[in-house]
Amino acid sequence: MKNWFQFLLSIYGHIVLFLLGFLFFSTSYGQEDLPFSKEVKEIQVHADAIWDESEETIVFTGSSSIRLWKDLQDRFPDSQIINTGFGGSQASDLEHHMDELILNYNPKKVFIYEGDNDISVKKRPRVIVDTFNDIIAYLGKKRPDMKIILISAKPSIARWHLKRRYMRLNKRLRKLASNIESVDFADVWTPMLNKRKLKRNLFIEDGLHMNSNGYDLWYGVIKEFMY
């Protein structure tokens, strides 16, 4: 009986050690090995070096259309702009890094561009908008006075075959913004079209990312939400 009792204790001890090890591994993975963790840290280092916490801040974040907008600060010289865009990201990636990319800079406004890559990997618009709902709820809880501007998904040559999915996503994002007082919707889709045809002179060679003509057009839309 004594040997049997010791055997049970031994098994119980191994189970406890296994569970503790699994918990440690899961926690470590969640903190250190999320997608874009390394890139987000690099973005933080750069942003921290230029951010003046005594000034009001406006954050632009999202995927590569934001990351590649290099002259944001020059276009809006009267505001302190922090660009935390990270190329290739989806809405779910931003959801994991909202503190580092948005809230740490205590912004009065944040412009978010996500959904483009989500559609490209065939996520359903409903699923994408559910993620946006979670993002907005978290940001609203942490900073209820902060204005959130959702930038519509843009059309592009490379992804024009997915235009109907993009249009459905934008319709849902517009509706989402209309139902929440702290959220606005900036439509960059419509002005990038000539009636129903895409303005092809807005893009660099890859047919996905924009040239200065594209960013000129975006500037015309975004400036209406800056002040």
From TrEMBL:
| GO MF terms held by the record | phosphatidylcholine lysophospholipase activity
* Bilayer-crossing regions: none
What InterPro entries does the database record attribute to this sequence?
A: Ester_Hydrolysis_Enzymes (IPR051532), SGNH_hydro (IPR013830), SGNH_hydro_sf (IPR036514)
- Give start and end of each SGNH hydrolase-type esterase domain: 69-217
Offer one Pfam family short name for this entry: Lipase_GDSL_2
Cited PANTHER family? SGNH HYDROLASE-TYPE ESTERASE DOMAIN-CONTAINING PROTEIN, THIOESTERASE 1/PROTEASE 1/LYSOPHOSPHOLIPASE L1
From the Swiss-Prot or TrEMBL record, give the protein name: Lysophospholipase L1
- The organism named in the record is Flagellimonas pacifica
